[in-house]
Amino acid sequence: MDKKLVVVRGGGDIATGTIYRLNQAGYKVIVLDIAKPTVIRHTVSVAQCIFSGKTEVEGMEAVLVGSSDEALALSEKGIIPVIIDPKGAMIEKLHPYIVIDAILAKTNIGTKIDMAPIVIGLGPGFSAGRDVHAVVETMRGHYLGKVYYKGEAIPDTGVPGEIAGASSERIVRSPANGSFTPIKKIGDTVNKEEILGYVEGIPVRSPLKGVLRGLINQGVAVKERMKIGDIDPRDVREHCWSISDKARAVAGGVLEAILHLSK
């Protein structure tokens, strides 16, 4: 068994922080995701290659592939292969040494401790020692990135972490059920109440002034009140194309857990 082979379930921005750090540390990373990921910060999410065929995050290339053989070949070259596999069926074929559930569903939707010698869950929904071997804290604050080898992460509060004094008010939410059509793009500076796009003809407005840091992909089905965007009040455009402090902190916890459990 290749002890450097890692399967990550989920390719969003927090997952991508972990994928990037492991890739930089010499691990061979393969990503599994759903057919239409609801990624918000898609400029820093490897899952974006599901929409575009390939994408790049801080110099790391990710490519959509359709087979385990193709995925293994690309992972040997330091390229991140992404496979559409929502149930994780490919894990049995790939025989990874490490499985990381980075879906951030706030509940366990199918990851089991016997999937690999090392299994790690990110955020709430997992119990270390039962579902996974370790859990990494994803809540902003004092414990962000902490590794739990017993027990669970802090339960989800439903309140987004604070950035420049803004918390819930920086989140863009869908006004209705339907398909999203953007008219703005990530990196744009927007004013409060400015229209960012439409859901079934209903305007989606910016909740405050700042930089549009995240926006869900065109054509993705959304539900009323679902998070579909993120405004950064700090007004620093380059942050839109770089991995966040939160994602890097979580990634550090994952790397610690891998090294600890590999002893």
Describe the protein.
- With 263 residues, the protein is of the alpha/beta class.
- The strands form 3 sheets. It has a 9-stranded mixed beta sheet, sandwiched between helices. Strands 10-17-15-12 form a 4-stranded antiparallel beta sheet, with no helix packed on it.
- 44% of the residues are buried.
- A hairpin with a 2-residue loop joins strand 3 and strand 4.
- Helix 1 crosses helix 5 (245-261).
- It is globular and about 55 Å long.
- It has 2 domains: 5-156 and 245-261, Rossmann fold (3-Layer(aba) Sandwich), CATH 3.40.50; 168-233, Beta Barrel (OB fold (Dihydrolipoamide Acetyltransferase, E2P)).
- The protein has helices spanning 13-24, 49-52, 68-76, 90-94, 245-261, and strands at residues 5-9, 28-33, 54-57, 60-65, 80-84, 98-101, 118-122, 134-136, 147-148, 171-173, 178-182, 189-190, 195-199, 202-205, 210-215, 221-222, 227-232.
- The chain starts with a strand and ends with a helix.
SSE blueprint:
Blueprint: E1 5-9, H1 13-24, E2 28-33, H2 49-52, E3 54-57, E4 60-65, H3 68-76, E5 80-84, H4 90-94, E6 98-101, E7 118-122, E8 134-136, E9 147-148, E10 171-173, E11 178-182, E12 189-190, E13 195-199, E14 202-205, E15 210-215, E16 221-222, E17 227-232, H5 245-261
Parallel strand pairs: 1-2, 1-6, 2-5, 4-5, 6-7, 7-8
Antiparallel strand pairs: 3-4, 8-9, 10-17, 11-13, 11-16, 12-15, 13-14, 15-17
Helix pairs in contact: 1-5
